[in-house]
Design a protein that fits this description.
It catalyses: Endonucleolytic cleavage to 5'-phosphomonoester. The chain is of the alpha/beta class. It has helices spanning 23-30, 44-51, 71-76, 121-139, 150-158, 172-187, 199-202, and strands spanning 8-13, 18-20, 37-41, 84-90, 97-103, 108-116, 145-147, 194-196. Helix 4 (121-139) packs across helix 5.
Length: 212
């Protein structure tokens, strides 16, 4: 007899919201609870992503069948739930930039900064990673930090934001933050792995602002 594929359950509204790997645990949070919101998913990565999003995007809609595992899926594996995921958003109309970080396992937002005028997405991604590293350093935590920006990860490794953006009176605060971030990288040691969020395999970065 074929083994039943595991399911993962997202509880947005219940006694204790979260992601559960058994129906019994999820049911305990929703059974008898007024207006519970929950849904099952075929993969843990999909469940974790959904938990960080608004429930109306998922509840009442059919779950997409899990894609077949490809060779690259096996090589990449799954994201570590015990991690901090960051992302930035840049408004092409106004030039405003903001960034945020969430704890992947629960979807809890740990910080949100901005908007900053006359920024760029790469600057936001860089500042988000450094902000995450500084926060985790302060807490004495060595958990990984995920970003979907190869450019920003490269800047962090080099401890230098190689931006072409010109400094102006409007973005002076942003350049001050860049200077402070570079100084922090040059004066602190950290053991946190800074990893690439594999969007093609895991889906959209859970810290995404959802404005695409």
């Amino acid at each position: 007899m074929a083994q039943k594929k595991p399911k993962f359950y997202v509880v947005w509204q219940g006694r204790k919201p979260g992601v559960y790997d058994s129906w019994d645990d999820a049911k305990a949070q929703t059974d008898g609870f007024a207006k519970p919101l929950f849904k099952s998913f075929d993969t843990k990565a999909a469940a974790l992503k959904a938990f960080g999003e608004k429930p109306h995007l998922h509840v009442g809609k059919p779950t997409k069948p899990a894609a077949k595992q490809t060779k690259i899926d096996g090589l990449v594996g799954s994201p570590n739930p015990d991690s901090l995921v960051v992302d930035a958003a840049w408004n092409t109309a106004t030039g405003d930039m903001e960034y945020q970080g969430i704890y992947l396992a629960t979807g809890q937002k740990l910080f949100l900064k901005g908007p900053y005028p006359d920024g760029t997405n790469n600057i936001g991604e860089f500042l988000a990673i450094v902000h995450a590293l500084a926060l985790l350093h302060q807490k004495g935590s060595n958990i990984p930090v995920y970003s979907d920006s190869k450019t920003a990860i490269g800047w962090v490794k080099k401890k230098k934001a190689n931006t072409k953006l010109e400094e102006t009176a409007r973005n002076a605060e942003l350049f001050d933050l860049l200077d402070r971030a570079e100084t922090w990288l040059q004066t602190h040691r950290y053991a946190n792995p800074v990893l690439k969020w594999e969007t093609t395999v895991w889906g959209e970065n859970p810290a995404d602002f959802g404005r695409k």
